[in-house]
Write a structure and sequence with these properties.
six-stranded mixed sheet; single chain; Rossmann fold; 3 domains; four-stranded parallel sheet; 18% strand; alpha/beta
Length: 421
């Protein structure tokens, strides 16, 4: 892709000469040499079932299999490996919602460096405890990444620590780019890469590598609709920013300068996905691939599922960026996914409030092959006659057709029943 004159306003395919992000394919290849034996060269393999569902050939890069369950190890290791002796002696500091924190903490411990990690207060407990397990000093501060970053910069100056930025650093970008090298070495026929975007370190590094190895490849970024910072910056939009997302790993308020320049130069487009799209992708990966992926890690698949016409027939590489997810959040996502798939349903039944009615209802549901999870009686808050009762059942089914069969069975024995959405 040729550099073009951007004029006053940068756009996709242009490169601002006044903001040169000097990360090259050579930097990424050197990073790959440093990371040899230090991080896992994760598999990149086709998911036949997801390919059938998506109408495209979908290859998954399993970065959730890294020791800290995230691609963030790549950039952190590359950065720490290049510190001077003085910087090593003083130690490092980072701010992160979790995955970068774990990457820095783990490789700092491995290299014998002291690490201080500043994390926002909302960070999932599983990430905080895992980071602490690597020997890092944890500081919880602020409600956003920006607030945590500002505090980390203050501590870095006060304690003379080297600040390790989660994305806006050439060494970090080069390290993340090694994932792109591995993808195209494993599957040279890829014609499209779909990568989640928070601060932009992963997609920036992968884009540099991919453009050098295969200039005509299409590179698509994905952001959560609630945190469209890079989307707004690149497309000059003004979409509002939310306060939370299940994809907290890409919930970044301020795009990186280095990463933005590289994205403007190398990335073809950025698309948005909503919370339900991401939840669906998490459940699909868990059920089909038997792999656990966090919200940010599932965003790329969410985009492919949301925009099937855009990706139809393509050979697509997706990065499953991380697998660190709070167990309680995962449980809620699975349950909501079962509701969307029609495998968990609420059925409201109206019946006479006499002995044997509930037994008849439950027997009918059982004979129809559904399993009852919960039963709720409602006598006071109802418009039914006083001698009647509303019974709400939460039932496990095989899908929408099975729900209809259960309702038909209840109707056949004289009950008034309907599904509650």
């Amino acid at each position: 892709m040729e550099d073009t004159d951007c004029g006053e306003t940068p756009h996709f395919g242009c490169f601002r000469a006044d903001n040169p992000a000097m990360v090259s394919i050579d930097d990424i290849r050197q990073a790959a040499a440093r990371l040899q034996g230090q991080v896992l060269a994760t598999p990149c393999v086709e998911s036949r079932t997801i390919s059938q569902i998506a109408g495209a050939q979908v290859f998954l890069k399993f970065e959730n299999l890294q020791f800290t369950a995230s691609f963030k190890e790549r950039g952190a290791c590359n950065k720490l490996a290049q510190l001077s002796d003085g910087e090593r002696a003083r130690g490092v500091i980072a701010m992160s919602a979790g995955n970068h924190a774990q990457g820095v903490a783990y490789h700092a411990q491995r290299l014998g460096l002291h690490a201080v990690i500043v994390m926002p207060r909302f960070t999932p407990g599983v990430k905080v405890e895992r980071t602490r397990s690597f020997g890092a000093e944890i500081v919880l501060h602020g409600d956003t990444l920006d607030e945590a970053r500002n505090h980390a910069l203050e501590l870095a100056q006060a304690r003379e620590l080297t600040f390790v930025h989660p994305y806006d650093d050439e060494a970090i970008v080069a390290g993340q780019g090694t994932a792109g090298l591995e993808m195209l070495e494993a599957v040279p026929q890829l014609d499209t890469l779909v990568v989640a975007v928070g601060g932009g370190g992963l997609i920036a590094g992968i884009a540099v590598a991919a453009r050098a190895l295969k200039p005509g490849i299409e590179i698509i970024g994905v952001q959560a609709l609630r945190f469209p910072n890079m989307f707004n910056a690149i497309k000059h939009g003004s979409l509002p920013q939310g306060s939370s997302t299940i994809a907290e790993g890409i919930a970044v308020g301020t795009p990186g300068k280095i990463t933005r320049a590289l994205i403007e130069k190398h990335v073809d487009d950025i698309v948005l996905v909503d919370e339900g799209d991401i939840e669906q992708a998490i459940v699909m990966l868990l059920e089909i691939e038997k792999t656990l992926v966090e919200g940010a890690g599932a965003a790329a698949l969410a985009a492919v599922l949301k925009y099937p016409e855009r990706f139809h027939g393509r050979k697509i590489g997706l990065v499953l960026g991380g697998g660190n997810i709070d167990p309680l959040l995962l449980a809620a996502i699975i349950e909501r996914g079962m509701v969307r798939a029609g495998r968990l349903a609420r059925i409201r039944v109206s019946a006479r409030d006499v002995p044997g009615s509930l037994a008849k209802i439950t027997a009918t549901v059982a004979e129809a092959g559904a399993n009852i999870d919960e039963v709720h009686h409602q006598r006071a808050f109802t418009m039914l006659a006083a001698q009647n009762v509303e019974i709400e059942l939460v039932v496990q089914t095989r899908g929408p057709a099975h729900i209809a069969a259960v309702l038909d069975a209840l109707h056949a024995v004289g009950f008034v029943a309907q599904e509650q959405k």
